[in-house]
Write a structure and sequence with these properties.
InterPro entries: FAD-bd, FAD/NAD-bd_sf, FAD_aromatic-hydroxylase. It is built from twelve helices and 19 strands. The protein is α/β, with parallel strands linked by helices. It has a domain at about 10-75 and about 105-180 and about 280-350: FAD/NAD(P)-binding domain (3-Layer(bba) Sandwich). Strand 14 and strand 15 (about 225-235) form a beta hairpin. It is globular and about 65 Å long. Flavin-adenine dinucleotide binds near residues 18, 35, 169 and 311.
Amino acid sequence: MATTSPLHVLVSGGGIAGNAVALQLLRNGIRTTVVERAAAPRPGGQAVDLRGPSKVAAERMGLLEGIAKYQLDERGMSYVDGDGEIYARMAMEDFDGAGIVADIEITRGDLNQVLLDALAAADTGLLDYRYGERIDRITQDEAGVDVTFASGGTERFDLVIGADGVHSATRALVFGPEEEFSTNLGAYGAFFTMPSPAGIEPGWFGMRMIPGAMLGIRPDADPATSKAIMTIRATPDPALRRDPAAQRALIRRTFAEAGWRAPEVLAALDTTPDFYFDEVARVDVPELSAGRVTLIGDAGYCGSPLTGMGTAMAIVGAYVLAAEIAATPADLTGAQRRYQEVISPFLDKAKEIPGGSLALMLPNSRAMTALAKLNVRIMMSRPMRPITKKIYFGHTDDFSLPNY
Ligand SMILES: Cc1cc2nc3c(=O)[nH]c(=O)nc-3n(C[C@H](O)[C@H](O)[C@H](O)COP(=O)(O)OP(=O)(O)OC[C@H]3O[C@@H](n4cnc5c(N)ncnc54)[C@H](O)[C@@H]3O)c2cc1C
C-alpha cells in the first residue's frame, strides 16, 4: 500500500458527490474510507446533464470516456397536451447542446457506476468502501475526528466529508437540525423507471403541464424503458416522508385526469424497481465546514431538482474540495476555507430556479397554466432561442473553474 499523504479522510455517502470526492482524494494519494448506508450501489434516477463548469470538471477528472459509454440518445424535449399533441419543441441542436437537453446526458445511476469504476481503477489499496454502514456519532478536537459507526466501533479520522444527500445525517450531527438549512419549496418530486409506452417518440423527452403539476417521460439507456419524472405542488406534509403508499396515492390523485401517457405512468407505479420520492427542497448551509467536518453536494447546497444542477454542483464541489485538500494537506482549515471561497459564486448561480420561482414554473390555476404554455412556445421560438439559452441554461457559464 503506497500512502503519499498521512491524511485519512472519511466520506459519508456514496452518491455522486461522495464517490467523486473519494476518487480525487485517492488519486492524490490520500487514504479514504467511504460509508454508504445502502447495502449496494443505489440504482435509479433520471438523466442528469453535465454542462459548463461541471463538464469541465468531469473532463479534468478523466470521466468523459466512461460517460460516453452510457451517453443517452436524447434528442430534445416536446411539450404535449392531454391528447398528445405537441405544442412546443426544443431540439438539442437548436440550443447547441446547451438547452434543457444538453450534449452530455447520462442517467444518475450510470454516472454513479462510472465513478465506481474509476474508483476501482484508481485504488492502490488506499480505499476502504463500506456498504450498509453509517455514522452514529461524531466528536472532534483540534487534532482529529472520532467517529462511532452504527455497526459499532469508533475510529479516528483527520477529516470527515458529509456527502449524504439532502437529508444529511452528518449535517444533523455536526451543524444542526435539518429545518435550519432546508426549505421545502412547496412541492414534491418523483422519479422512476417504467416500460416505454408503445409508440412514444424515441429519444424525445415528453413533458405535460397541468395546473400545479408536471409529468415527464424521458428516454432511458435501454429503449425498452423510460424514466417517469414528476413535480407536484403541495403543502409540505411530514407524514409523507416515510410513507410510500401515501406518496403513490398523491401521484395517482394528481395525474388521474392528466391524459397523454399518464395511465401508463400510473400503471407502472406499483411495479417499478426504483421509485424515488422526495420533497422539492432548497438547502443552504452558510458555512460548509465546522471544525474538521465539511459538507459537499446536496448535503451542503441544493437548489432543488427544479434547477437541474444538483449533479453539476456535486461534481464541481468534489473536484474543488479534493484539490484544495491535496494542495495543503497540513493546513486543512485553509483548504476548507478556499473550497468555500472558490465554489460560492458558482453555487449562488446554480441554485437559481430557471424562470425565477416554482409559482412561475408550475402555476396552480388553469389560466396561469395557459400563460405558462404560451411562455414555453415563445421561449422555444427561433428568434428567442439565444435569449432563452442565456437566461435559463447559461447562467453558470461565467464561472471559471480553477485548473488544479
Ligand atoms: C437513488 C437516487 C435517485 C435520484 N434521482 C434523481 C433524479 O432523477 N433527478 C434529480 O434531479 N436528482 C436525483 N437524485 C438526487 C441527485 O443524485 C443529487 O441531487 C445530486 O446528484 C447530488 O448528489 P449527492 O451525492 O450530493 O446526493 P445523493 O445522490 O442523494 O447521494 C447521497 C448518498 O448518501 C447516502 N446516504 C444517505 N444518508 C446516509 C447516511 N446517513 N450514511 C451514509 N450514507 C447515506 C445515500 O444512500 C446516497 O447514496 C437522486 C438521488 C438518489 C440517491
